[in-house]
Amino acid sequence: MLPTPTTDSVDYDLVYEPAEDSFLLLDLLEEQKEFLDTHFQTTQNGDKPHVVAGEVPLVLEIGTGSGIVTTFMHKNIIKQGLFLTTDLNLHACQASLTTSRENGGTPYLDTIRASLSSALRRRLVDVLIFNPPYVPNEQVPSRPDDDNSSSWLDLALEGGEDGMEVTNVLLDGLDSVLSDRGIAYILFCKRNNPEKVAESMAQRGWKTFCVGERRAGWEVLSVWRFMK
């Protein structure tokens, strides 16, 4: 098992604390390493990974929170890549850079305060990772006016009707986000009806695959892979 990055400097009163969903992503992304190496034709040249053909992959984590997932990715899974994180929460954006730096860092990481992938040009992303606000609620919380409000934590958790309002926005525009070789890894809870989501995406021409699931208390979490 690969080491889990530390997040000691993150203020969990303002930023989502890594939990069962975060650790499920880490475990399943570790299992996906061989698949990703093959997909991007990555070989090992001594201690350094080398992309045989094409450009190094651009990895985007949406809703980065503490930055633990992106740090895990650049340290262990895609060691030769460009990395971006986005989050509406200013403190989460800052945390993603701090967590990376405190775990050895990479000069090829930047962060953008933005909703989903709205700040990026079309069809750039090779690997997209999204642990969305998936908890069903009456509505998605409003964006707080105060950067230091604890309400940012609600925005990281509550996904509106069926917990899918935010995720559906991304899925509906996924074609315009991913590159021709792009892959998306998206986390769902059982109440999001991920099988129905996958069926709908398959009807739109996507290859869908559940890379794994795990029970976390009373909830069942799963991560699905989407690619053309």
Low-confidence stretches: none
CATH superfamily label: Vaccinia Virus protein VP39
Corresponding CATH architecture:
3-Layer(aba) Sandwich
- Quick one: how many beta strands? 9
For this structure, the CATH topology is Rossmann fold
Radius of gyration: 17 Å
Strand order of the largest sheet: 5-4-3-6-7-9-8
- For this structure, what is the CATH class? Alpha Beta
By helix and strand content, what is the structural category?
A: alpha/beta
Topology as H/E string? HHEEEHEHEEHHHEHEE
Inertia-based shape: globular
What's the short version?
The chain has helices at residues 20-31, 33-39, 68-77, 90-102, 152-157, 165-172, 174-177, 194-203, and strands at residues 42-45, 48-51, 58-62, 82-87, 109-113, 125-130, 178-189, 207-216, 219-227. It is an alpha/beta fold.
Describe this structure as you would to a colleague.
The protein is built from eight helices and nine strands. The mean pLDDT is 94. It is globular and about 45 Å long. The longest helix has 13 residues, at 90-102. It has a single domain, classed as Vaccinia Virus protein VP39 (Rossmann fold), CATH 3.40.50.150. Strand 3, helix 3 (68-77) and strand 4 form a beta-alpha-beta unit. It has helices at 20-31, 33-39, 68-77, 90-102, 152-157, 165-172, 174-177, 194-203; strands spanning 42-45, 48-51, 58-62, 82-87, 109-113, 125-130, 178-189, 207-216, 219-227. It is an alpha/beta fold and 228 residues long. Strands 5-4-3-6-7-9-8 form a seven-stranded mixed sheet, with helices on both faces. It has a two-stranded antiparallel ribbon with strand order 1-2.
